């Protein structure tokens, strides 16, 4: 039998971004008027806002990060985080990366896509399997590896961080290139409609509004605005309206001024039971459990 002999040539695979180690992986729930002392260190630190909003100070810059946004503190940048009369749930990852491409992340605010959120969620879920430390331990300086960690858990964390960074870098580069092209009028038209819908929803957080009213105010059919909003936001107008109300209720709960019944009726819910059911569906906690979690986190 004749055997074919070929000279195969290996293709080496280049790494644009390589994470050589992590220092900390955190998930914090900050109540209102929270702050920590400024710090600086010789590695990168990512701050991602999962819900609410937080204030960020980075050297001489100060700004607000909102839900879905992230900022990367570069090595030796003096930085801190705080809240005012609001709350903020954040994921914070400190890591080492010395390749040139990582410098693109300095001094920018990134908005996470669903893919990047999923990768971050995997990192947060995998970390307790790999390390025994609590995710909300503020002054942690060294993580403790578990002897019984699942096979490959460290590599999963490393790979997910690298994939998340590469995805962010790719999307940012794509956005830079897109800015040089002529903007599509149809997209601008749709964006304006979505923006107007969200403005109407925010204006009526403390009452109610239906699709017929929105359609009438924007001079479009109900079917059309539902389709445009779903395409751009990935959810229905009503579901997004409920989401905004739940987010607003978190702020009211953090202020510790109102009962849950008062909050429910203030935000236009039919009953406190309906409000509690929706709140748990969105947060996996009852309003009282959420209130206790904020108070516990502020004792750290």
Q: Compute the number of strand runs.
A: 7
Tell me the series of helices and strands, N- to C-terminal. Answer: EEEEEEEHHHHHHHHH
Mean pLDDT: 88
- As a percent range, the share of helical residues equals 40-55%
Write a concise synopsis of the structure shown:
This protein is α+β, with helices and mostly antiparallel strands and 300 residues long. It has nine helices and seven strands, in the order E-E-E-E-E-E-E-H-H-H-H-H-H-H-H-H. It has helices at 114-130, 153-178, 185-203, 211-218, 222-233, 237-255, 260-266, 272-283, 287-297, and strands spanning 21-30, 44-58, 61-66, 69-73, 79-82, 88-96, 109-111.
Could you list some keywords that capture this structure?
globular; single chain; 300 residues; alpha+beta; 7 strands; 7-stranded antiparallel sheet
Structural write-up:
This protein is of the alpha+beta class. The chain contains 9 helices and 7 strands. The chain has helices spanning 114-130, 153-178, 185-203, 211-218, 222-233, 237-255, 260-266, 272-283, 287-297; strands spanning 21-30, 44-58, 61-66, 69-73, 79-82, 88-96, 109-111. Strands 1, 2, 3, 4, 5, 6 and 7 form a 7-stranded antiparallel β-sheet that branches. A hairpin with a 2-residue loop joins strand 2 (44-58) and strand 3. Helix 3 packs across helix 5 and helix 7 packs across helix 8 (272-283). The longest helix has 26 residues, at 153-178. The radius of gyration is 23 Å and the shape is globular. The termini are far apart. The model is unreliable at 177-185 (pLDDT under 50).
